[in-house]
What we know:
Layout: H1 4-47, E1 51-52, E2 55-62, E3 72-74, E4 86-90, H2 93-98
Antiparallel strand pairs: 1-2, 2-4, 3-4
Bound molecules: zinc ion.
Amino acid sequence: MSGKMPHRLEELEKRLxxxxxxxxxxxxxxxxxxxxMTFFGGLKMKxxxxxxxxxxxxxxxxxxxxxxxxIATECRINDCHFEPSHYHIELSNVTCTLCSIYKPKTHI
Length: 108
Ligand SMILES: [Zn+2]
C-alpha cells in the first residue's frame, strides 16, 4: 500500500509536466498566428484602397454608432462625401486581416 502512493504521485507529476509542455506549445502557436495576422493585416491595410486616414471607407456608419461600436470613430477622411456627422471603423492590423473586402490600390 505504501509503495503505491509515491508511484501515483510520480504519475501525476508526469501528467502535469506534459500539460505544461502542451500549454507552452499552444502559447507559441498562438503567438505565431498573431504575428502572421499582424504582418499580413498590416500589408493589407497599407495596400487596400478603402483604407484612408486610418479608417475604413468601405463601411460608413451613421452617428448613432457612437458609443455602440467601440472601434467606430468620427470621419477623418478628407474626400469622403457621405452625409455630415458619420463614423467609420478604425483600422488595425487585426481588423484588416479578418476583412474579406480588401481591394488593392490601383496604380494608373
Ligand atoms: Zn467619412
